[in-house]
Amino acid sequence: MYLNEIIQEVFHEVDSLEAKGQVASYIPELKKVEPEKFGVYLSTIDNTGFGIGNCYETFSIQSIAKVLSLSLAYRILGEKIWERLGVEPSGTAFNSLIQLEVENGIPRNPFINAGALVISDILLSHLEHPKEDFLAFIRSLSNNRKIDYSSRIATSEKQVGYRNVALCNLIKSFGNIENEPADVLNFYFNLCSLEVNCQELSGLFLFLANDGCTLSGSRVLSQSQSKRVKALMQTCGFYDESGEFSFKVGLPGKSGVGGGIVAIHPKHYVIAVWSPRLNSKGNSYKGMKFLEEFTTKSQLSIF
Ligand code: GLU
Hints:
five-stranded antiparallel sheet, single chain, alpha+beta, binds glutamic acid, two-stranded antiparallel ribbon, Beta-lactamase, 13 helices, globular
């Protein structure tokens, strides 16, 4: 069966499931999203694509952006980056403070909030115009000039982001943040606020499916760095449910509290799913179900 047919079949199956889970509500603007939205888009490295449902409607990328900020910081710093943060799953909530205190301000990995704040700090130290340069980097990945930050969402998160403020100050107290916490947080809230649709999201991640090179041939990461970023997605991409995603879906991926999930089949395709109702671990309920069925039916996983 063609992947397109499998996508259609699984989409309708999952779409008819009982609506479970809740839209993220701790960021006021995210609460306004229509809970029943559901879209899927698959892009292949031979430049073909197929989408269904609300795949052309934009949503908030949230934590999915952490893979892209890591990629740019990794490109700039190389392996020295691992002096500032680790590569182990945390086994705690994405915004937990506990481990950080015990582990002297060195975040477990780049995809928990603490790690993403350290990555934001690195970008702030190395980019001349951090906000503009990061956006230019994102746009260059799939040659898409439409992608932009949402000041509405960034401002909304800034007004309630007390935990991220606490995390950033705690890391700073250990000396692992160089810049002013307010500037680091500002940059972090902006990168989480990026808005994309499923088609654009799958396009943004094609360089990771393509061994670190965009489809137009520019190298973003070395092959080894691209392997490592995907390995981190596999082990740390789904908060405290990363093992479950690996077990059921069998692809490296990353989720965000906006209800998006992106998953990569190396050298083959990227698939992006959006459905805003989240399960108790903060991952898209239908997104997880869709991808589990999709890799089962297509028999395409990395394992
Ligand atoms: N901006 C969100 C936060 O820091 C990102 C959460 C997520 O998508 O995991 O809380």
